[in-house]
C-alpha cells in the first residue's frame, strides 16, 4: 500500500505548530485559501473549505477525526470533495500529523497512507504536500507564506 511521508523540523514549540495546524486563519494561508472546520472531537467531521470549482465554499477535503491529541497528534480519514470526483469513486485514505519536541524545535511528521490502489488523488497529494508542508514551516517561522503563483 502506498504511503506519503514528510518530516520537517520547525523552529517553534509543539504548541505553536499545533495552533497553526488547527487554526482557520493559519490553514487559510497554508492550504491555498481553505479554512479548517471541525469540532475537533474524535468521530466528528473535519473539512477544508475554500475557493475552488464550486465557489468560495468549495469542499476540498473532508473526513472523520480519528485522533485528536493536542500538541501531539491529529489523525483523520481523507476523502476529496465532490468537485474532484468527475464521476469516479470517492476513495478513503488517512492523514496523520505527528508532533515531537526536538531540542528547541518541533519535528512535524505528516503521513498520508491507507491509499486505495486506484485512488486518482494520490498524484495530486504527492505534489501538493511538499508545498503545504513548506508553507507550514515558513509561516510558523517567519509569519509569511511562500509565493507559489496561482494554484490550478
UniProtKB/TrEMBL annotation:
| Gene3D superfamilies listed in its UniProt record | 3.30.530.20
Q: One Pfam family, short name please? A: AHSA1
Q: Which positions are tagged coiled coil?
A: none
Which InterPro entries does the protein's record reference?
Answer: ASHA1/2-like_C, START-like_dom_sf
Please list the residue ranges annotated as the Activator of Hsp90 ATPase homologue 1/2-like C-terminal domain: 12-135
Family in the record:
Belongs to the AHA1 family.
Task: State what protein this is by name.
Answer: Polyketide cyclase
- Tell me the organism's taxonomic lineage: Bacteria, Bacillati, Bacillota, Bacilli, Bacillales
Amino acid at each position: 500500500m502506498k504511503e506519503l511521508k514528510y518530516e520537517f523540523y520547525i523552529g517553534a514549540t509543539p504548541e505553536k505548530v499545533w495552533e497553526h495546524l488547527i487554526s482557520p486563519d493559519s490553514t487559510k494561508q497554508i492550504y491555498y485559501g481553505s479554512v479548517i472546520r471541525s469540532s475537533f472531537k474524535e468521530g466528528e467531521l473535519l473539512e477544508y473549505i475554500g475557493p475552488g470549482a464550486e465557489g468560495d465554499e468549495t469542499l476540498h477535503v473532508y473526513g472523520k477525526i480519528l485522533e485528536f491529541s493536542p500538541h501531539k497528534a491529529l489523525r483523520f480519514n481523507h476523502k476529496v470533495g465532490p468537485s474532484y470526483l468527475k464521476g469516479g469513486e470517492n476513495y478513503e485514505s488517512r492523514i496523520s500529523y505527528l508532533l515531537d519536541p526536538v531540542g528547541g524545535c518541533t519535528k512535524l511528521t505528516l503521513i498520508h497512507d491507507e491509499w486505495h490502489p486506484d485512488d486518482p488523488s494520490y498524484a495530486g497529494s504527492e505534489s501538493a504536500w511538499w508545498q503545504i508542508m513548506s508553507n507550514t514551516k515558513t509561516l510558523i517561522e517567519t509569519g509569511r507564506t511562500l509565493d507559489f503563483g496561482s494554484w490550478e
